[in-house]
Design a protein that fits this description.
The chain has helices spanning 8-21, 29-38, 67-82, 100-112, 114-118, 129-138, 150-155, 211-219, 233-245, 260-263, 300-309, 320-326, 344-358, 361-364; strands spanning 27-28, 89-94, 120-125, 145-147, 162-167, 176-181, 184-193, 198-205, 228-231, 249-258, 274-277, 280-282, 293-295, 298-299, 313-314, 318-319, 365-372. By secondary structure, it is of the alpha/beta class.
């Protein structure tokens, strides 16, 4: 839908053109989602529009104070010590959004481990020019930050130990939607419904040699009758690419998701796909193409298996709440006289409580650490 900052019909026309070029008159849902999110310049993540916070479409942990970033910064320093980082602390963050989380992490390292901060190299891999600009502005106070192209980084991963970090990255990779009807497996495709004047799903018999079927077979997933499952092979492939190039270090993934037994359980008949717009969640992928966030839960079981296949060892998967408790978040609670509910100590304490018990974020978000000792 058009607005002042974005001609929504431009992306619609581009997607319709892709559909018209296909012999079947439809494209896989995975391709539709990729265009909606990542088309340059009209995809949701490529646009110069506020996405996070009060004026955006959703909140992240970095929107709720500095606590999560502080805990991650301290955790990265401890990981570096455990894994034997010697000359330099190397961290590579994929994605990064506005750069606020990176700022909190870097501030924490500078405060808690100044010697590590002095020898820090913080590489940011970000495909969005808009987000790169925001990150440069947000992180101008940290000279250790540099931006690197994804392919360039993958081709030049150093032999030295490195921590690779992502926060709400994998949940936004394009997914395959698969549905079982009348005993058969179908994959969602997207067509243009001329009568309704909008995009619509079309069920196409699953390609027995396609990416969705290979993922189902590899992960042992069997949808029940009438069930929709949302599959994200590219999340596991991302772990594979990073892990196979890493000599020694860790991959720390913070995202919302769960293990396979929960994600594909019979009670999850409609999958986990959701859209977010103006802080409203809904499951219609065709309502505002290019103007809404689109996401699905990460299959951490598949990510763990992918890492193990390239020599990574997975530490126990933790909820964000458990991670914060383990890393000492309660120790950050500040004593205060309680007379000013808007004072810095009171605000900080509220942020800690919100991340731990205030909403579902602490349980929905998981922290996965996978290490390689060389």
């Amino acid at each position: 839908m058009p607005n002042e900052t974005y001609p929504g019909n431009a992306l619609e026309a581009i997607i319709r053109g892709e559909i018209a070029r296909r012999p079947a008159g439809a494209i896989p849902f995975r391709d539709y989602m990729e265009l909606c999110l990542y088309h340059d310049p009209y995809g949701y993540y490529r646009r110069s529009r506020t996405k996070v916070g009060k004026d955006g479409d959703f909140y992240t942990s970095a929107s709720v104070g500095t606590i999560m970033g502080e805990m991650l910064g301290r955790y990265f320093v401890r990981l570096a010590d455990e894994l034997g980082f010697a000359d330099r602390l190397r961290i590579a963050e994929w994605g990064g959004g506005t750069g606020r989380m990176a700022g909190h992490i870097l501030d924490a390292i500078a405060s808690a481990a100044p010697s590590a901060y002095d020898r820090l190299d913080y590489a940011m891999i970000e495909i969005s020019a808009h987000h790169r600009a925001l990150q440069r502005e947000e992180l101008a106070r940290h000279r250790a930050v540099r931006h690197v192209d994804a392919d360039e980084w993958l081709e030049s991963v150093p032999d030295e130990p490195i921590v690779v970090f992502s926060h709400e990255l994998l949940d936004a990779f394009p997914i395959h939607r698969v549905e079982r009807r009348n005993g058969r497996l179908y994959e969602w495709y997207v067509e243009w419904d001329e009568k309704a004047g909008r995009f619509a799903e079309r069920l196409v018999p699953i390609d027995e040699s396609g990416a969705a079927m290979r993922f189902l077979e590899r992960e042992g997933i069997t949808p029940c009758e009438g069930q929709i499952v949302d599959l994200n092979p590219e999340a596991a492939e991302w772990i594979t690419r990073i892990g196979s190039r890493m000599t020694r270090g860790a991959i720390v993934t913070v995202d919302y998701g769960d293990t396979a037994d929960e994600l594909y359980a019979p009670h999850r008949m409609k999958g986990t796909f959701l859209c977010y717009r103006n802080h409203q969640a809904f499951d219609d992928p065709f309502a505002y193409p290019g103007e809404q966030d689109m996401t699905a839960h990460v299959d951490f079981t598949a990510c763990i298996r992918a890492g193990e296949a390239v020599g990574l060892t997975s530490r126990p998967l933790r909820t964000q709440q458990r991670f914060l408790l383990d890393e000492g978040a309660l120790g950050l609670l500040a004593a205060h006289d309680g007379t000013d509910p808007f004072g810095p100590e009171a605000r900080r304490n509220r942020a800690i409580r919100q991340l731990l018990v205030g909403d579902r974020m602490g349980e929905l978000f998981k922290v996965l650490t996978q290490t390689k000792s060389g």
